[in-house]
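WARN no homologs supplied; continuing
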Amino acid sequence: VKSHSVRIVLIQSPAGFQQDLERVGDFESGMISTASDIKGIAGPRILVDFVTSTITALNASDETVHTAPLPKNAEEISAAIATAVSRL
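OK structure emitted
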């Protein structure tokens, strides 16, 4: 799976977090989006869920292939997202 085809979805993230993540992470612009829930989101994706404090990788078949606890800061979250992407 090419990383640019993976969507990173921030669920109920704190204000400004998306900008922090884009600054510290090695992600292409347009990969990261925000949502209030996961309904209607398809394809390979990484869910960064601030409600459940988890990072979950889902493949194109909607199968969970990786789950990890959500770290506390943007740099650690960026690394955790990169790990999740590598599992797809």
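Helices lie at 17-24, 74-86.
OK
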